[in-house]
């Protein structure tokens, strides 16, 4: 509880300004060397959450689209090339870095490592950006740690270049709620938001947050960066529209069930046994929905105006992002409301549930901050319990290897056979397998002896 003491929650950004409170001392913060160490530690944790086979296996677009483009074209012309209706700036930068600096046998490991590094960077951004709304070190460490430790992350997002945009969305969300203190902070935030928005088209849903701190001129460059990035995404969609999805309509009951399963249950029920528990006791475990709901209620009752606003914004975005992903990219496996017991046993878990899960887990440290505004010892104890609950649930599941890349095919072991094929004078390129049956065509010039 010591991390809570001495931290003021007055003068918070956003709606708090209407309460007539002035900005107060933030309390002691983490020095930059320790903050960098925190980011590196989380990047390493992201790497360790993946099995060795997953680290060395490329996710579909990571090879077929990003690496193949970087290896076979004028690289900088591919940076803003649209794919599936939007831009992917960060994955393309990762691919260019890998192709230019890393031997071909380590390309998969490089893409995984760079994506884990991005996760660590986003975690640092979240820690710094959340200081206005989450005073005290402990709540901010927990919220930034969710960038890497949310249980659902390894399945399709962690260490995955194609889906690193999910983490960038999480970072932009917190930056838009921040009030930068220095010119360097403004520039850094603006660059982060611009690069993120040119990678993640769903940042369009964050445009309403431009109203937060709208009178603070220090935030205007950050907001302009979001607008520019979103405009770039709309231009990409006009030039290379996304293809039509599957002819499936996911009904409201399935959207609700899917949000509950992916956004709530994956955090509080061990994922390896989640399907069996769903099949055996679906009505009973609905009680877990009370966890984030109770946290919102606590924040609403005890928090400041800014805390209350943030609690409902987190809850609202958890629903919006889940529904947007499923509606834009529908499929039969999202028909949760129609699943039989046998189908629930093998329930589909989606990357669209990652942001909802992060936001609903963040409700607990936010409620803890609201509670410690009082000097009441019972409330401070309750706040510590909330923090401990989040830490416990994420660390219990942290060792689980849940990635869809766990079973390969690993990149490294395929290199020797690829080199032998390239020894033939008629062969100019070879295909190396990835997950989901995808493959990457690599020019023979990248192999030793060429």
Automatic annotation (TrEMBL):
The keyword Magnesium does not apply. The keyword Transmembrane helix applies. It comes from Microbacterium candidum. Keywords: Membrane, Transmembrane, Transmembrane helix. It comes from the Bacteria. The chain crosses the membrane at residues 35-52, 64-86, 106-130, 160-177, 189-210, 252-271, 277-302, 309-328, 348-372, 381-398. Residues 1-11 have a biased composition (Polar residues). This is DUF2029 domain-containing protein. Coiled coil: none annotated. Residues 1-20 are annotated as: Disordered.
